[in-house]
Design brief:
The protein has 183 residues and is of the alpha+beta class. It has one domain: Glutamine Phosphoribosylpyrophosphate, subunit 1, domain 1 (4-Layer Sandwich). 19% of the residues lie in helices and 36% in strands. It contains 4 helices and 13 strands. The strands form 3 sheets. The protein has a 6-stranded antiparallel beta sheet, covered by helices on one side. Strands 5-6-7-8-9 form a 5-stranded antiparallel beta sheet. Helix 3 crosses helix 4. The chain is globular and about 40 Å long.
């Protein structure tokens, strides 16, 4: 279970993962830097390597096809942010049709100032709608949604600031940038 939020050059996520029995685990890494330097916030299957490899070859003008996404057969939703700020929501899921299942994939460009996906997205959207940062949005979702949990992880699109767990510990700076004052 997850919340991922993007706003103003910062991609943020919670750290809760659940297994197939809905047992909650924490300290799961959800933000990755792909080979093409894009940031990817991930939710869904914990083994999304094939999808991440496919997205790592993408560019804003040449994204994978729906069929290429579906062929990964990876239950996934995430936010992908390229170094120049182009934002996309990536969604791959099983669609049930009667007695058969079919995989479907979509990539949607986002032109709004902010976006969120996951179980806690309604809380994240509420915070960002009122001027809050992606970090504040995820922190709020972790407080209000039982399927989301701290610690918070985040990275700037330029890679200069981050607090993203590696194998077992956080790397880089561990303090969040201050939120902009709205008013």
């Amino acid at each position: 279970m997850t919340v991922i939020a993007y706003r103003a050059g910062i991609l943020a996520a919670d750290s809760r993962c659940s297994d197939e029995f809905s047992m909650h685990l924490t300290n799961c890494r959800k933000i990755y830097r792909l080979k093409n330097r894009a940031l990817l916030g991930t939710a869904g299957d914990d083994d999304a390597r094939q999808l991440m490899e496919l997205l790592g070859r993408a560019s804003p003008r040449k994204m994978p096809t729906r069929q290429q996404l579906a062929d990964t057969k990876t239950s996934f939703i995430g936010i992908m942010v390229f170094p120049k700020g182009q934002v996309f929501v990536v969604d791959v899921r099983v669609v049930e049709y009667g007695n058969s299942d079919e995989w479907a994939g979509t990539i949607s460009p986002i032109t709004d100032d902010f976006v969120s996906v996951g179980h806690g997205q309604q809380y994240a959207y509420g915070v960002m709608e009122h001027g809050g940062s992606a970090i504040e949005a995820v922190r709020c979702a972790c407080k209000r949604d039982l399927t989301c949990a701290l610690p918070l992880q985040w990275e700037s699109i330029d890679g200069r600031q981050r607090s993203v767990p590696s194998e077992h510990k956080a790397v880089g700076k561990t303090t969040a940038p201050r939120a902009r004052k709205s008013g």
